[in-house]
């Protein structure tokens, strides 16, 4: 909003607040990317699975507390662990493999992923608020407020830019909010 409110003391405040949110967003993103999601370690020695493949009858009842054998990586895995077809490993309490962090969201990094989603939604909401304040504020409604010098073509470009920024921040914010709600 600096071009629309050139002498306002709120411009440095909004710039600092928005950049702080973005910094927190990037820090949580880096933690979610670099943190181990809870990968189940592979055994040091090969495990004999011949009894499982021989066709011998298995236990018909299996509780949620039983360890199982992964068909793909052939390792014992704890309850609620799932195999990721992208990472080719079993992950404890795996939720999904997220392309945003290029990592699985699991037991050990889900906290950072939820924080990342929260700050992404907050940044989108803050950006939408800033665009609305700049667009609907007293300087944004006046013809001279939209463009220095009153150029009509520049006014249309800035109006289109405001509309695109507003729609982008609202749609992205809604998507991130739904994913955040699902994770919580």
TrEMBL record:
<protein>
    <recommendedName>
        <fullName>Palmitoyltransferase</fullName>
        <ecNumber>2.3.1.225</ecNumber>
    </recommendedName>
</protein>
<dbReference type="InterPro" id="IPR039859">
    <property type="entry name" value="PFA4/ZDH16/20/ERF2-like"/>
</dbReference>
<feature type="transmembrane region" description="Helical">
    <location>
        <begin position="116"/>
        <end position="137"/>
    </location>
</feature>
<comment type="similarity">
    <text>Belongs to the DHHC palmitoyltransferase family.</text>
</comment>
<keyword id="KW-0808">Transferase</keyword>
<dbReference type="GO" id="GO:0019706">
    <property type="term" value="F:protein-cysteine S-palmitoyltransferase activity"/>
</dbReference>
<keyword id="KW-0812">Transmembrane</keyword>
<feature type="transmembrane region" description="Helical">
    <location>
        <begin position="12"/>
        <end position="34"/>
    </location>
</feature>
<keyword id="KW-0472">Membrane</keyword>
<dbReference type="InterPro" id="IPR001594">
    <property type="entry name" value="Palmitoyltrfase_DHHC"/>
</dbReference>
<dbReference type="GO" id="GO:0016020">
    <property type="term" value="C:membrane"/>
</dbReference>
<keyword id="KW-1133">Transmembrane helix</keyword>
<feature type="transmembrane region" description="Helical">
    <location>
        <begin position="157"/>
        <end position="181"/>
    </location>
</feature>
<dbReference type="Pfam" id="PF01529">
    <property type="entry name" value="DHHC"/>
</dbReference>
<feature type="domain" description="Palmitoyltransferase DHHC">
    <location>
        <begin position="65"/>
        <end position="183"/>
    </location>
</feature>
<keyword id="KW-0012">Acyltransferase</keyword>
